[in-house]
Amino acid sequence: MSTPTRPAGASPMAAVVVLCVGGLAAALTQTLVIPIQSELPELLGTSASNAAWVVTVTLLAGGVAMPVAGRIADLVGKQRVLVASAAILVVGSLVCAMADSLVPMLVGRALQGLAMGFIPVGISLMREVTPPHLAATATAAMSATLGVGGAIGLPLSAWIVQVGDWHALFWVATGLAAVILVLTWVAIPHVHDAQPGRLDVVGAVGLAVGLVSFLVGISKATTWGWGDARTIGAIVAGIVVLLAWGAYELRQDDPLVDLRTSSRMPVLMTNIAAVAIGFGMMAQSIVVPQLLQLPEMTGYGLGQSILAAGLWMAPAGLMMMVFAPISSRLITTVGAKQTLMAGAFVLGVGYLVALFMMDAPWQLLVASCVSSAGVGIGYAAMPTLILDAAPAREAASAVGLNALMRSMGTTIAAAVMGTILTSRTHSLGGGVEIPAQSAFQLCFAAGAIAAFLGIAIAAFIPRRAQPAGTAPAADREAAEVA
Predict the structure, then answer these.
(1) Given CB 3.0 to 4.6 Å as the disulfide criterion, which of 178, 304, 316, 404 pairs with 368?
(2) Residue-averaged pLDDT of the chain
(3) For residues 19 and 141, is the Cβ–Cβ distance under 8 A?
């Protein structure tokens, strides 16, 4: 097994900055089209149901890409996969920028989703390119980009659409991706971290089929209805395929995802907690903008424009990044498990604040900042728990699976929040129905419950046994490459 080595003269800070900015760029594509979502049918000359796939296909591709990219990175080296992911992001953004119809737009958006593999691979690389005193903070910052990019994308894209043509969204994304590609090529050291093995192609296909089927059922449930045969069929088919995939993986000597490692209590409980905290993160991203934009005549809407709503949400995204070093200090002093539990607690408190403070934009700003601080703390702790429990040869694939579980949480949240908001409505007349105030309150309560459930799940993560006289894994690995 090769030993990771950091090239002499490589700048750890430059690598950290490039990886974090690259993660932001990849995550930003998730919310890039939200401001123009209602206009997509007209812009692309298609139906509203078809246009909804412009958002869904990116989510599906990202879900498949994260564990697969992680495994490929373990086999061929992380820097190579980062460069490939950045190149895919350039191509996908360019295709979208030139698209005027549905099919090319879907192709481009799928490619943008595949580029999400950049984030888990970048997280797993952090320990190998940074010295001990930077490793925890760098890992925390990179992990936070999953939430920060999406939060920043909303106001940025709203402003771009307001001042220019909608194609400018993707031209800007193309330019940013091209810069990331160049910087990844020149500033990220090629660490000699490739491990012997082979890519489990059958396992990759099985995972893709199972995930896509399950996520399609979840993400389209609000549109199709939870009791619709298509929803039930997609979810059940996805679960059946994933169960068969799991049985297949357990029989492989070199699986795509080592389920034996994933079933270890620290990894398993961290991944389950990731679903709950991912749910909590996405809930506010869906609910708060809608409440901000509802007309004041409803008595509870706050009458903000799309751009204004995005700007009210932007500080929450930045809060995730601000709390990355704080999370790093907590991990060092009290441990990653306690830090994850603290993050989930703060996230839940943020939703309770929103439940009782939703009468003015500044109140929702406060609630969103509190919730986002919890997400930043919790997201930063997860990679440490995963990397400490997984073998070095499986680091990237293990982090990729954790990122997938976060994505599963956000997908489930989108479906649940959509169902709640459409099940309790208020009529404005003329056949126009909008979510009732009680629907928003129920959404905030659901977010709080998910967060507090995350605390309970994280409590079952066993303490990592640390033999006397040995350094923590993060310090040992960083010392090896220093």
Answers:
(1) 316
(2) 83
(3) no
Structural domain count, the chain: 2
The string of DSSP letters for 57-75 reads HHHHHHHHHHHHHHHHHHH
Contact between residue 95 and residue 111 where contact means Cβ atoms under 8 Å apart: yes
Q: Which of 66, 149, 25 is nearest to 403 (CA)?
A: 66
Of the pLDDT bands very low, low, confident and very high (cuts 50, 70, 90), residue 108 is: very high
Residues 268, 164 share a domain: yes
Say yes or no: 246 and 370 in one domain: no
432 with 362, same domain: the answer is yes
Q: If residue 428 lies in a helix (H) or strand (E), which one and from where to where?
A: strand 425-429
Q: Alpha helices of 188-228 — where are they, by DSSP H?
A: 201-219, 221-224
pLDDT per residue over 344-403, tens digit each? 999 999 999 999 999 999 999 999 999 989 988 888 888 888 888 888 777 778 888 888
Residues with Cβ within 8 Å of residue 464, at least 6 apart in sequence = 266, 335, 388, 389
pLDDT digits (tens, 9 = 90+) for 400-431: 888 888 888 888 888 888 888 888 887 777 76
Question: Cα-atom radius of gyration of the chain, to the nearest Å?
Answer: 21
Residue 458 φ then ψ, to 5°: -60, -30
**Domain encompassing residue 206:** 200-255
Q: Is residue 5 part of a domain?
A: no
Considering the domain architecture, whether residues 345 and 434 belong to the same structural domain is answered as yes
Tell me 469's DSSP state: T
Which backbone phi and psi does 307 adopt, to 5 degrees?
A: -65, -45
Residue 48 belongs to a domain: yes
Same domain, 435 and 312: yes
